[in-house]
Amino acid sequence: MNIVITGASRGIGFETAKRLASLGDNNIVAISRDEAKLKELKNACIRENVQAHLYPIPFNLEDTALVETQLLAKVKQYVTSIDIIINNAGALVNRPFELLAAAEMLRMINVNLMAPALVVKTLLPMLSRPAHVVNISSMGGFQGSVKFPGLSMYSATKAGLASLTECLAEEFKDKQVSFNCLALGAVQTEMLGEAFPGLVAPLRAHEMAELVADFAINGNRFFNGKVIPVSKATP
Ligand SMILES: NC(=O)c1ccc[n+]([C@@H]2O[C@H](COP(=O)([O-])OP(=O)(O)OC[C@H]3O[C@@H](n4cnc5c(N)ncnc54)[C@H](OP(=O)(O)O)[C@@H]3O)[C@@H](O)[C@H]2O)c1
Predict the structure, then answer these.
(1) Given 57, 132, 169, 220, which residue has the most CB atoms within 10 angstroms?
(2) Structural domain spans, the chain
(3) How far is the CA of 5 from the centre of ligand 1 (A)?
């Protein structure tokens, strides 16, 4: 399968890309801003599977104009079609609402909501039929979940991503493109340290990656337009 995954330089995205590269004959296109860490990911994949195909694309998803104009050509350098997109990249600023700068709000809106929308829109011409889009949201953006001070805009962008998933599933239901959303609970990563300093999460990134990778490959056989909580604890 040909798989595009964003936010692959560390945390859940890194481990998910590594797992997908170790399974079968997958081609993984891995996106983040950090070229050196993407190279580390490629080396880690090859250490586990000498035949791994991982293609790093250093790219800033916050720059929405760049996503619209340049991403398609960059992905086309490596694959001719796409079976799975995993919109995993995320940005989080933990700050009381009244202290949150507009630029910080906009960064979260762009990375967490605009980028997933534009990645899908831009790469649509390359999507195989069937194809599966998996959007990585958060329990903080899950309707009715416990909310936390300091995470207002982050949670709002993740709620937006969940809603976008439901809407696109409806819009593409006759076009063999499935959209699902995983609303993750706490996983031990850099982002968790920013959101909940000192908290020890019940899951590590490589454990959550098992679920994300397996769901990306098989989930569209069973689900479409679903926002699925994946959480063992609060937060
Ligand atoms: N960890 C948790 O407890 C938890 C809980 C709920 C939901 N989530 C969600 O799970 C996803 C992965 O989280 P994580 O915990 O693994 O986070 P993380 O360790 O902070 O990693 C975030 C990833 O997003 C990428 N990214 C951020 N801004 C970017 C930009 N402007 N352009 C391109 N890539 C960008 C980062 O790459 P570069 O810095 O190299 O660009 C990095 O690879 C996120 O969507 C997050 O919201 C995590």
Answers:
(1) 132
(2) 2-230
(3) 11
